[in-house]
Amino acid sequence: xxxxxxxxxxxxxxxxxxxxxxxxxxxxxxxxxxxTYLDSAASAQKPQLVIDRISRVYEREYANIxxxxxxxxxxxxxxxxxxxxxxxxxxxxxxxxxxxxxxxGTEAINLVAQSYGRGFLKAGDQIVLSRMEHxxxxxxxxxxxxxIGIEIKVVPIDRDGNxxxxxxxxxxxSRTKLxxxxxxxxxxxxxxxxxxxxxxxxxxxxxxxxxxxQAVQHMPVDVQALDADFYVMTGHKLYGxxxxxxxxxxxxxxxAMPPYQGGGEMIEQVSFEKTTYNTPPHxxxxxxxxxAGAIGLGAAIDYVNGIGLDAIAAHERMVFDYAWQxxxxxxxxxxxxxxxxxxxxxxFVMDCAHPHDIGTILDREGVAIRAGHHCAQPVMDFFDVAxxxxxxxxxxxxxxxxxxxxxxxxxxxxxxx
Length: 417
Description:
The chain is of the alpha/beta class. The protein has helices spanning 16-21, 48-61, 71-91, 105-120, 139-148, 165-171, 194-203, 223-226, 251-256, 291-307, 309-327, 355-364, 377-382, 399-416; strands at 29-30, 33-34, 36-37, 99-102, 126-130, 151-155, 176-182, 207-211, 230-234, 245-249, 267-270, 275-277, 333-336, 345-350, 367-368, 370-372, 388-392. β1 and β2 (33-34) form a beta hairpin.
């Protein structure tokens, strides 16, 4: 059920122990045991390079950006805009003007809903989502529906968690104006066929927003090759700081869209009679931004690029395949989400314990996993479960982490079974 591995001769160099040493959190213990961190899908740990870069901003380089003419303001502005350029290159956007800094992926989706959605959609227009969306790619569209009267259509999934492309195409019509779809499901690990989704949506005359919050840390993303109209990502899952993310949008769309919020920076001229707005991306970045966060995200991109996404993907695939195999050894464990194309997370339930109890017992063993509905309650409803336990892997995870997970799960079985 997993993707084919790269032939051994062509695989990139992998030195996971060196990568792991870059993360100071792994010198910590939990309940007297070495930390086994298996919750990177919720938020990834931070390498020392990123921590040091953020500290340097506050220690030696901090000032507000763009408007100051003094040295520190110029240094901070240059570093902030350099981070924008790094993200542009990371996503292969055509222009840095297509990169809007936001707090996180959730804010990016809300920006599109309230700016593009309210500006260009009308009552009776349809938006297409999938059954496996995170709440942040459901609720903003429901708010828009209640505001202007759009309709929401939902693409089904099968019992393995596969996105049903043919069913998706049947939902498309002349009334479909926007498709908002996840690149990788945070609850199931399904990798959706975004290139095909975008092509078919465009054939129907619809724009496409891709939620890439679970994708960009695991695989190369080329927004131009995908021809995505909007692409959303967040920094804290990409080994960067929290409170920073980005919206990629085609420049022609950003030019046409009205501002999402008003305030400083997003203006050209203000009077009590009229305000004229700045050009993108600044039109959508009202107020003082997360300066250190953006610069820290730039450092995280440097870190990931230094290793290489191909090397990260190959290593994560090895850990994932090993975990998939070993979890079969745990009596009464059932994996939820067995899609053909699968990212490096595994959701599961056990017949003897609630996921919250599983998480509590595992924590006693130093193993950190996520337990709950993962902000994806429609997925839980589809599989008729209240919650799942979820182990998700990052570049720093090892087979030994998987062994610790399995041993802890066997203890759950001993306690509750």
